Amino acid sequence: MDQVVQKPAEIPGYTLAITAESLYLLNLLAIPGLAFLILLWLFFKYENSSPLLGACHLRQTFSASIWAGVLLLLVNGVIFAVGGYQTPYTWVIAVLYFTICHTTLVLLGLLGLAKAIAGQSFHYPLIGPTC
Amino acid sequence: MLYSSQAVAKPYFIAAIALFVGQILFGLIIGLQYVVGDFLFPILPFNVARMVHTHLLIVWLLLGFMGAAYFIVPEEADKELHSPKLAILLFWVFLIMVVLTLLGYLLVSYATLANLTGNRFWPTMGREYLEQPTISKLVLLIVAIGFVYNIGMTIFQGRKTVINLVLLTGLIGLAVLFLFAFYNPDNVVLGKYYRWWTIHLWFECVWLLIMAALLAFVLMKITGVARELIDKWLYVITAAVLMTGILGTGHHYYWIGTPEYWQWWGSIFSAIEPIPFFVLTVFAFTMVNIRCCEHPNKAATLWALGTAVVAFLGAGVLGFLQALAPINYYTHGTQITSAHAHLAFFGAYAMVVLTMISYAMPMLRGRAAANSHRSQVLEKWSFWLMTVSMTFIALLITTAGTLQVYWQRFVAEPLPFMAVQEKLVVFYWMREVAGLIFLIGLVVYVISFFVGGEDKGETSAGVN
Ligand code: HEM
Ligand code: HEM
Ligand SMILES: [Fe+2]
Asked: Domain range spanning residue A113?
């Protein structure tokens, strides 16, 4: 057995990694905006000064959160701006788009959190930087 | 397999799969009747075929749960099952009840069935999911009690693990809550009110405990992660289920004549109801991340992870989507409800039973630990075919539902029900196509049991 993997909590940056993933999820699910501000603050404070694991999750979630904002708010805004509120197909596209997009982002966050708890790094496909 | 009495699980699993196939065939029939109105009319009307579809669903899942418990409990309790004979006897009693009930549905009209079975003496029929004649319900109750007794005695006399205790709690809850199916007062509001104590509290409370225990067991076995860690997660999940699911019942009390405060309580508790599904997903992936894949049964790992994810999508996402009172005001009882019902049932309960079968069946059939590589490849194909097609069914029906809500309930001059349904035909056709792909997946699944090849042996993973 790989010793490092057995005791994930002892890996430096472990708490920061879990905090970052949790904030990413909170931003999507419970306290949008506020959680992002805390993540923003953590990012500027610790991005360059924390152990590899923490820095990686921090960069990933920070970038993914920005993408999430763009994908959810901006695109939905555009859907309604173009379609208007009065046609059913705008609603269909908006509901489907929002549900699928939001759910995918949350699922990625769940995978990221599961990686963080296991003390491993995680790369958000397409919306996260390499680290 | 550690104990020979675990073998009683096998007939349960086989019967479960057979009835699952039946459920899907009837699903396809009603799916077709949606678009070809008089398909099979008057031999098999829609309402009857629909009842068979959901009846088969409930009973195959119950068979799956019982089989799973008979497999898990002896191993966890570290002793043989209290009475394997009773388990086999109850299996046949249950199966005969299921088949007779089915014949009753298919051969005579529902009213005749009610008359024949003496519904007038103790009326319990006629409510969705609880359509079974009172006698069938009584048989089901007796089987449930005998089953819980058998499992309970085994645990009582053996090792008491957290997995066993959570499982037992869920199973006792299942039997006790079923008692409300026998209470059918004349007051329709009261009747509907208590119906949810069986239906909602089954699906969103006690069955969830059963599901969590089954997943925890399989994850522990296939990853080999320490039991203590598994137990901690299971405690958290159990607490989350109980704290959210019980009062979550309120989301069925918005518009049935119950007091208005339920609109608040139902909404508040529904908003946190996705939490257990959320934790389950993180749990499953964390376990696999921490220690993965030494066990040769890769298919079971896939099913376990898939269960967590699809349950989250079907229950946590699609359930929540319509759970807040101001939204449910528009979506109540539409295709949006149906989309949620399908993905939640498939993701949470169908998939967890398939996970359990995937893990246990190779051993029940005398293999060391897992099926041959070739068989597992087929099984994984069936996983993807069924999961993807069911996701498509849910998306198509959500789309149909959104349009239905718009034309039927949102616009200033709403259209009549059937006028709206006509506009949605294209989605129902696509649902039927996705359903056929689902059936292909299921056939591939069944075939995977008959594919030979060299089995995969046991590894060092089983430390618990
Ligand atoms: C595995 C878990 C679940 C299963 C199997 C399930 C199944 C079902 C089924 C079959 C129905 C239709 C019942 C009927 O109309 O007769 C239903 C309705 C409903 N479910 Fe779930 N559900 C699950 C979890 C959830 C969760 C977590 C939520 C909320 C967050 C939820 C919210 C609702 C609501 C609000 C309705 C009523 C829809 C309406 O007004 O028509 N469900 N569910
Ligand atoms: C694969 C092909 C399937 C098709 C074509 C299909 C089709 C249908 C149809 C047409 C209905 C009736 C909806 C209505 O009354 O308007 C229905 C109901 C239902 N089906 Fe299926 N079904 C399929 C598979 C499944 C599976 C795999 C599950 C669960 C594991 C399932 C669970 C249910 C439930 C719970 C209901 C009752 C829904 C409610 O109360 O809202 N079905 N199905
Ligand atoms: Fe419910």
From this structure: 13-117
